[in-house]
Amino acid sequence: MARPKAEDYDLRRETIIEAAAYLIAKYGFFGASMSEIAKTCGMSKPALYHYFMAKEDVLFAVMEDHVVELVDISKSVALSHLPPEDKLARLCRNFMVCYVGAKARHKVLLNELGNLKPADNDVIVAQQRQILHHVFEILVELEPSLRGREDLKTPAAMLVMGMLNWTHTWFDADGDVSSDDFAEMVTGLVLKGLGSLTS
Prior knowledge:
The protein is mainly α. The chain has one domain (54-197): Tetracycline Repressor, domain 2, CATH 1.10.357.10. The chain has helices at 9-27, 34-40, 45-48, 55-78, 84-101, 103-111, 118-142, 150-165, 179-193. Helix 1 (9-27) crosses helix 4, helix 1 (9-27) packs across helix 6 and helix 7 crosses helix 8. The protein starts with 8 loop residues before the first helix and ends in a 6-residue tail after the last helix.
């Protein structure tokens, strides 16, 4: 008979993911051990294996939780009935809120993809492609000349994502520029120069 889940199973699992995100972001995948993750969570290493069979499984959980949130953000904005300019503004703003609240998870997503199991890597990459698809759909609404330009789909979407993705390396939520301010800066820059892509 399978061992039943503890009442606090989901909470403990989330605690493990949060600790792993912090440690992997700080020390890298190979520098963060399962023993250290267990210690940070106040549990034994054998107890940790009740939640995750291998460190690669923890890594996948860290990434998937984060990237699924990003997919949800991009999809909900792309499918909303807002004017396209407002869609872009909301997309940038909501991404920044997510990034500021999940710096460790975002750093792990950007830096440790190559350490996933191949099948898990495929899952994360597919989700990242969904994000790019939703971002591009918003850009097409803003600049109709992009429609049908599959050759520009990834480059155009990454122009936006590139400005936002790496904010974890420098952005200070308590600094002179707020996350909303920075989102407005990105939105303004895109709106004023997007048409140059197809001219």
